[in-house]
Specification:
7-stranded mixed sheet, alpha/beta, Spore Coat Polysaccharide Biosynthesis Protein SpsA, Chain A, 238 residues
Length: 238
């Protein structure tokens, strides 16, 4: 399954760590985050990959050029950031008129991607995409979702003080070909996937909850937590 790894962010909340290193290449227990992504996705028979670059793009280009995933990666440089929806829509042809995966690559995720893909294949008929979710210990810092009895999203609470629960959007999605056709045709002016597109798809988003390790590498505190995780140390050795 063709996969876009969104990797162009500035990583401002991770400074000073990201002053000289792009966010997607910060090392987690010695392994660059992007390497963890590419290795785990490849092991799940996913790919090829499109990776967008912007901040410190030369480092990302060198990493891909010198690594073992070069033949599977297409790099797309953005002189000006297009936003998560903007990158998706501009590169929609990468999916070759098929379902595809969209991933915010600033998470450290050890989900079972085979199960995730199978959940998407067996989604309710009216759902046009599948969202990975996880249980957050800090729900006020996440996008929290409410579900119906089928596991379909009925409500969003984006970083609110007292959200109704702790089931968080993991910003890892499988998009149907029908959804991508509509995005390309009707929403070419949008820039943010989470705040502009997802709210328009209530009751059309199926969910898959991972029970495996999931850490949003968004702040210095969460980054330190990831580096202290014995699960990641074990996973990097395998």
């Amino acid at each position: 399954m063709h996969t876009i790894l969104l990797s162009a962010g500035l990583g401002q909340r991770l400074r000073p760590i990201t002053e000289k290193t792009p966010k997607c290449l910060v090392p987690v227990n010695g392994t660059p985050l992007l390497d963890i992504w590419l290795r785990r996705l490849t092991e799940a028979n996913l790919g090829p990959f499109l990776i967008n670059t912007h901040y410190l793009s030369e480092q990302v280009e060198d990493f891909i050029e010198q690594g073992s995933f070069k033949s599977q990666v297409t790099l797309v440089h953005e002189p000006q950031l297009l936003g998560t929806a903007g990158t998706l829509i501009k590169n929609i042809d990468f999916f070759q008129d098929d379902d595809g995966m969209l991933i915010h690559a600033d998470n450290c995720c050890f989900a079972n991607f085979h199960e995730f893909v199978n959940a998407h294949k067996n989604r309710p008929e009216n759902c046009v995409m599948t969202m990975m979710t996880f249980r957050s210990n800090t729900p006020s810092t996440c996008g929290i979702v409410e579900l119906d009895e089928r596991g379909v999203v009925t409500g969003f609470y984006e970083k609110t003080e007292s959200p109704p629960g702790n089931l968080a959007n993991g910003a890892i999605y499988i998009l149907s070909r029908d959804l991508m056709k509509n995005l390309h045709r009707d929403f070419s002016n949008l820039t943010d996937f989470s705040t502009e597109i997802l709210p328009m798809l209530l009751e059309k988003i199926y969910t898959y909850e991972t029970k495996e390790l999931f850490i949003d590498i968004g702040t210095v505190e969460s980054y330190e937590k990831a580096n202290q995780s014995s699960e990641i140390q074990i996973s990097n050795k395998n």
